[in-house]
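tokens incoming
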């Protein structure tokens, strides 16, 4: 048996499906060196190659393929997600499109510790084990634990509730400053928090009054972070004001947990699809904006039940023109669809139109565009 053939056979034994395609470059390189009879180099490369083969982890597609071939993994019920039958996926988030269209939704697991043979870090890559992936997904559903991936839904109505929820539960800049800044007058620290807000939510804008020190502060000038969260300080600087239901095309698996193992909660209405590892920005077609403020400026935090009822309420919410791009009030808290110009998975506008019709929400979209998109 030639060395390339041996390596292929060994790789098929040690590594998961898709091995041949992922290491074709290595084999080509080895073939060239064999022709030159560079056996000392080959010996060193073989050691490196074996390390490479044994350390490889499943790709997203491989995780999905191996999971959806199982009906159960422990107490987790699994079925294959079918894009043609189920339509595309949705995810609710408080992050604004300027961030998500660029960065996507991705997670980085912790690296294995030197004591990984004694215990497995719950935030580590589950590796090439269906059992490990199944347990991690189960724990993330019933215990809200970290998971190497994201829970999406096939229902934009469900995603809209999660979008508003994420805004409602977002930590205020004031609370963060209490833990992160040296004192109330730590201007550099507070402006750092404002920059983090800007990166996640798109606001506050450069030059907004909140960046400047207020000379009327107690004792000496300070940056007033409560302008972002206190309606009494003015509605124009509140941030964040919108959540987003993002439309995604990627591989995933339907996951279910029986109420017996979910402390009595029925998760079936959420129509969950778990996407391992995450999605790139180029796999996101766009987003439906969901307004998350009541008329008095307070955050609107809907319950995680009665999703259709929440959707109907969003349709009747009035949007303050201080929070729209054109500066005009709007009669619906469900905004106009925002297309991702960086989407590379197909004909975005056509796919969006088909998905909105399939999910019966095309006629529900309003005209408002968030001030920061």
């Amino acid at each position: 048996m030639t060395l390339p053939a041996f390596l292929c056979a060994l790789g098929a034994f040690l590594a998961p499906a898709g091995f041949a395609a992922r290491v074709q470059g290595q084999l080509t390189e080895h073939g060239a060196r064999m022709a030159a009879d560079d056996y000392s180099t080959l010996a060193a490369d073989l050691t490196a190659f074996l390390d490479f083969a044994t350390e490889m982890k499943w790709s997203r597609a491989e995780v999905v393929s191996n999971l959806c071939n199982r009906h159960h993994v422990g107490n987790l019920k699994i079925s294959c997600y079918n894009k043609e039958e189920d339509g595309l996926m949705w995810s609710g988030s408080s992050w604004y499109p300027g961030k998500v269209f660029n960065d996507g939704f991705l997670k980085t697991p912790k690296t294995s510790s030197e004591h990984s043979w004694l215990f497995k870090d719950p935030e580590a890559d589950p590796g090439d084990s269906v059992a490990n992936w199944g347990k991690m997904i189960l724990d993330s559903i019933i215990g809200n634990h970290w998971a190497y991936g994201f829970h999406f839904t096939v229902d934009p109505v469900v995603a809209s509730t999660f979008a508003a929820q994420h805004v409602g539960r977002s930590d205020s800049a004031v609370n963060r400053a209490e833990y992160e800044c040296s004192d109330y007058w730590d201007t550099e620290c507070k402006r750092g928090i404002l920059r983090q807000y800007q990166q996640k939510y798109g606001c506050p804008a450069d030059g907004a009054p909140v960046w400047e020190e207020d000379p009327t502060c107690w004792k000496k000038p300070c940056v007033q972070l409560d302008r972002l969260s206190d309606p009494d300080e003015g509605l124009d600087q509140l941030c964040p004001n919108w959540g987003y239901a993002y439309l995604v095309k990627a591989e995933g698996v339907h996951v279910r947990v029986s109420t017996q193992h979910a402390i009595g909660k029925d998760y079936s209405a959420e129509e969950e699809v778990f996407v391992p590892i995450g999605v790139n920005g180029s796999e996101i077609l766009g987003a439906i904006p969901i307004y998350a403020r009541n008329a008095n400026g307070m955050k609107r935090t809907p319950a995680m039940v009665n999703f259709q009822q929440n959707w109907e309420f969003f349709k009747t919410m009035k949007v303050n023109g201080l929070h729209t791009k054109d500066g005009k009030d709007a009669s619906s808290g469900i905004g106009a669809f925002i297309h991702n110009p960086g989407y590379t998975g197909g004909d975005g506008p056509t796919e969006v139109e088909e998905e909105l019709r399939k999910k019966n929400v095309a006629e529900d979209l309003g005209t408002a565009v968030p001030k920061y998109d």
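note: Residues 3-56, 114-118 have pLDDT under 50 and may be disordered.
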